[in-house]
Design brief:
By secondary structure, the protein is mainly alpha-helical. The chain is 62% helix and 2% strand.
Length: 350
């Protein structure tokens, strides 16, 4: 009985070897497969971590107008640029990464933070389109496609279940394309874009607030004491919860590169939108003698897109031995922000 059992076990073992081969070869195969998988994901991760190049705003708008068979109207370049920025967000190498659950996307954090910076500017400009640029006055009707676009872009950037973030943002881009098509139809004046100084000034005010916050977060990479100036200028001002008069503000070290790449994405998107503004608001800017101010802002924002040669974002002290990439970024963004404040003053003047 025992001999029969042993012979049966041996025959079973032989049949398994015939079918699956030696277990050592199987283990070797698994190791090779894992190594190849890791190498492939690492290569893809490096490729996907490259930031998109800038694009020529006028040329892109001209190509889009030609494909639509129309002559560009006021606002065409600005809206088509917004669409191109949103399309780049979704269709750059690796696609949209902020909601990835699998390697290599789930390992990456630089590009998702870059995406968030771009997305914030897309959201803000779409809101400005709906609220100001497309309306003649405060009592005018809001554009239906712009309402849809604004709501779609407000979906959480990390959503992966149905509906996913990219599908909602794609629907927002589709709504912007419908608005652009109606805007370009001279026989159907139900879509408008008003190139006015007050509209531009309100959007710039929001941009100034965004850049001011970003500059502070970048500067706080090394930590600095901050006096409480929250209620300065108004003796009767009050706030809900009192703050300390002197406290240290410091960005956590785990978030330093996150804020840096959010700044890169913000500046990338803003530079393109301002180049489009330069086209559609040319008459307004020339009348205010403010065209050179816009170009200076763009120059400062372009400086933030220089190649980062270091493999990591360095966080040296302000005057220390090593560089501090966050402080360099903060410098450019602060100068752009100051120029935006000056531009707003020019636009406000009669």
């Amino acid at each position: 009985m025992s001999d029969d059992f042993d012979s049966g076990r041996e025959s079973l073992s032989e049949r398994m070897k015939e079918r699956w081969g030696d277990s050592g070869a199987l283990r070797t195969g698994l190791v090779i497969a894992v190594v190849l998988y890791v190498l492939i994901t690492l290569v893809l991760g490096v490729f996907w971590s490259s930031e998109p190049d800038s694009f020529a705003v006028r040329e892109k708008a001209a190509v889009k107008a030609e494909s639509m068979g129309i002559d560009p109207v006021t606002g065409f370049t600005t809206v088509s640029t917004l669409i191109e920025v949103g399309d780049t967000l979704l269709h750059k190498p690796g696609g949209y990464l902020s909601n990835d659950l699998f390697p290599p996307g789930v390992w990456l954090d630089n590009i998702p933070n870059w995406e968030y910076g771009v997305l914030t500017q897309v959201r803000d400009f779409t809101e400005a389109l709906r609220r100001d640029f497309s309306r003649s006055q405060s009592q005018s009707t809001e554009d239906e496609d712009l309402i849809i676009a604004e709501n779609r872009f407000k979906i959480d950037n990390g959503r992966w279940v149905f509906p996913s973030s990219e599908s909602e943002y794609g629907a927002g881009i589709d709504a912007l394309n419908r608005y652009l098509k109606r805007l370009s139809d001279r026989n159907v004046p139900d879509a408008q874009f008003y190139s006015r100084a007050d509209n531009l000034q309100r959007w710039l005010q929001n941009v100034e607030t965004r850049l001011g916050s970003l500059s502070q977060r970048l500067s706080a990479s090394v930590g600095k004491p901050r006096l409480n100036t929250d209620l300065s200028g108004d003796a009767d001002a009050r706030q809900s919860t009192p703050n300390e008069m002197d406290r240290e503000v410091k960005t956590p070290w785990t978030e330093i590169d996150d804020v840096f790449y959010e700044g890169r994405g913000t500046a990338w998107a803003l530079a393109h939108l301002l180049r489009a503004i330069e086209v559609d608001f040319k008459d307004v800017l020339e009348k205010k003698n403010a065209l050179v101010s816009v170009r200076q802002i763009i120059r400062e924002l372009d400086s933030t897109q220089e190649t980062v040669w270091s493999p990591v974002i360095l966080n040296g002290s302000g005057f220390g031995l090593f560089a501090n990439h966050s402080l360099v970024m903060a410098s450019y963004i602060s100068r752009a922000n100051a120029a935006i404040a000056d531009l707003r003053m020019l636009l406000a003047q009669g």
